[in-house]
Amino acid sequence: MILHDYEIDPKYSTSVAYFSMEFAIHQALKTYSGGLGFLSGSHMRSAYDLRQNVVGVGILWSFGYYDQSRHEDRSLEMEFIRKHYYFLEDLGVQAIVNIHSKDVHVKAFYLPPNVFSSAPVILLSTDIPENDFLARTITHKLYDANEETRISQEVVLGIGGVKVLEALRQKIDIYHMNEGHALPLVYELYSKYRDMNEVKKRVVFTTHTPEDAGNEQHNIDLLHKFGFFNGLELDTVRSIMLMHEENNFNLTVGALRSSKITNAVSKMHGEVANRMWEHCAGRSEIIHITNAQNRRFWSDNGMLAALDEHEDYALTGRKKHLKRNLFNVVADQTGKMFNPDILTIVWARRFAEYKRPGLLKHDFARFKRLLERTEKPIQVIWAGKPYPFDTNAVNAFNELIYISHGIKNMAVLVGYELELSRTLKKGSDIWLNTPRVSREASGTSGMTASMNGSIHFSTDDGWHPEFAKHGFNAFTIPPIDHSTPIEVQDHEDNKNLMDILENEIIPMYYDRPEQWCQMMKNAMRDVIPAFDSGRMVHEYYVKMYNC
């Protein structure tokens, strides 16, 4: 079957299957949770733009990640609503994978390139009549909280994905694992080649995070029981994976030892990852290819036109229009009327402890004074999705909602998906990013904010050091001593953040609007092409696929 409806550019003729647990390609297709999906979605869009021979392989989540709404007290309510997609095509093929000594049928659905202007994507489902109820639930929820279900999902993605591609008669040169979830594909390939050197020639790996949650591990016997190793004897697995005594099997380590080359997702992350895995015997070389996002999808055309025409008045006018669009959402959700003339700060991304969503309010008395000022005021908006089964993250989200009830110029929005994310990036003045340094592998939300003239204000982590020139195209929270206790670090980072906000950002926005406009233009110019995913997907071919 021919999956591409575009002519492949000869310099991208190597055929690549890009395996990812999530894809954020369009608001209508809810197969993602956050940043990993946003990245893979932009990868598919830019592969389409450059006419690359790439096909995405993911899972069709029957209930998505979850839908955000509110309880009666306006706190976060998490709903699991079954999705239906009439724009996907039934490919008429199935594969069978063995999970817990039971055959499970995997059905393939096809997202054609012309639907959302992306590379073709194959989405796998076990939620079909051929399976019993338990097997059907495997592809119900993205990142299911049950460990055995999570393992089963990875078997479906890795082994099921390879088998579906074979059933479709696709000749694949390179299998790209976007994170370690698809690792079982290695054992399916090993069953064919019986030689790890042959397997490694065909596999590349992208590692995304130094966080434990992103470097998944399970008991090796449990993995074996659930068919993760595709029926291979445990002695064989231990031999080819160089895990002779370990009982906990780390998926990242397995991927590092199964690929011809690995990439980290920013220059800084490359340094962190090489330190982190320096004692991992038999691992592949770790280079860095900095993450990026697709400008075609994320940038506002009106802002780009004003920038190209050197019309400052049109640029600031368009930004105010985009702010009004955002503030309509704020009014609809919260009943608060925000003012497009007022400096607007947004913190919006996945809610995780190391990202510190509450850092801005760490010194609460100073935070309240800032929000209560009548001269040169500010407005603050939070949004994002905590993992539904992470009580601390959900509580942090709800605490912000509770605080916002008493502050008219503070809002917390629900429904953080692709469309709201675009609205926030286009309608903000400042995009606040506060991870603990070295714990954010890349982060890409600030890239798409900068594409829309929203100034990135961040700790010096992830992609930010490769882009930021303080006071020119971004603002940087200065480095601190990261050997000190967490509480001390949070106090110092908050003080530095507030000092820059009060002494540099607010005065520039209100007193020197021409300089502010120039910063917007600098950010929009400097973020392209270095952080457009066209550069990224080209680098994957040059540095990974064809190396």
Concise account of the structure shown:
The chain has 547 residues and is α/β, with parallel strands linked by helices. 40% of the residues lie in helices and 17% in strands. The strands form four sheets. The protein has a nine-stranded mixed sheet. A six-stranded parallel sheet has the order 16-15-14-17-18-19, with helices on both faces.
What is the end-to-end distance?
A: 28 Å
Number of helical segments?
A: 21
Give the overall shape, derived from the CA principal axes.
globular
Task: Label the structural class.
Answer: alpha/beta
Radius of gyration: 23 Å
Q: Uncertain spans, ≥5 residues at pLDDT below 50? A: none
**How many strands?**
19
Strand order of the largest sheet: 5-6-7-2-1-8-9-12-13
How much is the average pLDDT? 97
Helix amount, in percent? 40-55%
Which sheet architecture does the biggest sheet show? Answer: 9 strands, mixed
Strand coverage percent: 15-25%
